[in-house]
Amino acid sequence: MKQIINTKNAPAPIGPYNQAVLANNTLYISGQIPLNPVTGELVTGDIKKETEQSMENLKAILTEAGMTFEHVVKSSIFLSDMNQFSAVNEVYGSYFNAETAPARETVEVANLPKFVNVEISMIAIK
């Protein structure tokens, strides 16, 4: 069974997709960029703040699905510049317990939606 998860506490989709899909007990969260859902403005100029906004968007979606970061089993981080990895990793890591952190990959890409510097997607299981 497939359930669509959407919340006003995270940015609305800008294309033919949903914020997340819950299939059985697995939540697939679409990539989140540093878009403030209240103002509709991008958070830019500081990779740590950009990462924090992306993580807060993910947190809002997890909350809507009745989950927390402890339920996350896999993350994918997309960066426009791998030189920003350590700053992104610092913020990202603050949302997890190191002993139970999910599997993850981080890749550098040529461009991201709206030409942001970071996008993060997740898979979580209840």
From TrEMBL:
Listed Gene3D superfamilies: RutC-like (3.30.1330.40)
InterPro entries recorded: RidA, RutC-like_sf, YjgF/YER057c/UK114
Coiled coil: none
Xref: CDD domains: YjgF_YER057c_UK114_family
The organism's place on the tree of life at top rank: Bacteria
The family this protein is said to belong to: Belongs to the RutC family.
Name recorded for this polypeptide: RidA family protein
Species per Swiss-Prot/TrEMBL record: Maribacter confluentis
Organism ancestry: Bacteria, Pseudomonadati, Bacteroidota, Flavobacteriia, Flavobacteriales
